Each structure stands twice: as C-alpha cells, then as structure tokens.
Automatic annotation (TrEMBL):
Signal peptide: none
MF terms (GO), sorted A to Z: DNA-binding transcription factor activity
Protein name: Transcriptional regulator
UniProt cross-references to SUPFAM superfamilies, sorted A to Z: Winged helix' DNA-binding domain
Length: 182
C-alpha cells in the first residue's frame, strides 16, 4: 500500500490590517487610528440619529429631525427654562438658526413653550413635551438599555468612551479654530 504524503500548507504571511476608513486619502501615517475613529464616528452618529428619530416616533412625535429630538431633550433637562444661547452652548452648535428652527417647530407642535422676560426669550417643555420625553425614556429602557445587560463591562467601556469623546471634541474645536485662522 502506497503511503499518501501528508498535505502541507504554506504558512500564511501576516499582512498588516488595513484601517477601516471612509476616506483613504486622509489616512495619516502618524495616526491611521484617527481616520478609523472618524469613520466609526460617522457610522455611529448616523445610527444614533436614526435611533432618536425612531424612538421619538414610537413615543408619539413623528416627523422630527434628529436635532429636534435632541433640542426637546435638552429643553426638558432638569425642568429649567433655557435660552437659545444656552442650548447652543451646551450642545456645541454654532449655527443658532438651526436650533431656533427646531425650537419653533417644537413650539408649533405644543411640546415646548416660549416665554419672554424683557428682551430674553426662554423655552421649557410643556406637559405634552414632558410626557413625550418620558415615553421616549421608557422605550429607550426597553429597546436600548436592556440590550446592554449582555456584557457587564460594557457600561464601564461606554463611560470611558464618553470621556474620550469629550477630550476629542476639545481637540476638534481647537483644530477648527486653528483652521479658521489660516
């Protein structure tokens, strides 16, 4: 009986993994990771925006844009009246017109009310707005937060990621100021 030679496989050469990016022309040899982060941020941002719109729609407020939902949440934050400038400052939005448009839309829907004291206009959630935000919270708990119980370390990782995002937002803000001065 003839002996069958054992099949051998050539060793697989390890190749450096290419970064997963959306714009290869921006990948820097000094930090390919930044391009990977930016792509992840784009994808996560779009997924988050889709989520807030669908969650608020399920809560009963349909046809809102992501910024509308986020403005409603901020106006509802701590049940204190907010000025347009405060909302823009906290949300890090330079274009006040975008937030002002969202506020007008929310006022017309009856979920936000405006009040004037002298020249100052402030905004607060109405009862209907607070109810919508509460319903959003319930749906968020059911659909998003409960899914996080799969991995006990996930909350710790998310906390660290939030810290890193705040650090990076400062870096991007500084880079934007530098680019604006060129």
């Amino acid at each position: 009986m003839a002996k069958i030679p054992k099949a051998t496989t050539a060793p697989v050469a390890k190749t450096p993994q290419s970064p997963i990016v959306s714009s290869a022309h921006l990948v820097s040899p000094q930090s390919a990771e930044m391009s990977e982060f930016e792509f992840g941020l784009i994808v996560a941002s779009n997924a988050f925006h889709r989520w807030v719109v669908h969650c608020m729609s399920a809560a009963g407020l349909k046809d809102l844009m992501p910024l509308d939902v986020l403005v409603l949440h901020h106006v509802s934050h701590r049940a204190r009246d907010k000025r347009l400038s405060d909302i823009c400052f906290i949300m890090n939005i330079e274009d006040t017109h975008l937030v002002n448009y969202s506020l007008k839309k929310l006022v017309s829907l009856g979920v936000v009310a405006s009040s004037k004291s002298g020249k100052e206009v402030t905004y607060a959630a109405t009862e209907a707005g607070s109810a919508s935000v509460q319903r959003y919270r319930e749906i968020r708990e059911q659909c998003l937060i409960q899914a996080m119980h799969v991995d006990d370390g996930l909350n710790k990782d998310i906390g660290e990621l939030a810290r890193l995002l705040r650090v990076l937002s400062g870096m991007y803000d500084q880079a934007a100021r530098s680019a604006a001065s060129l």
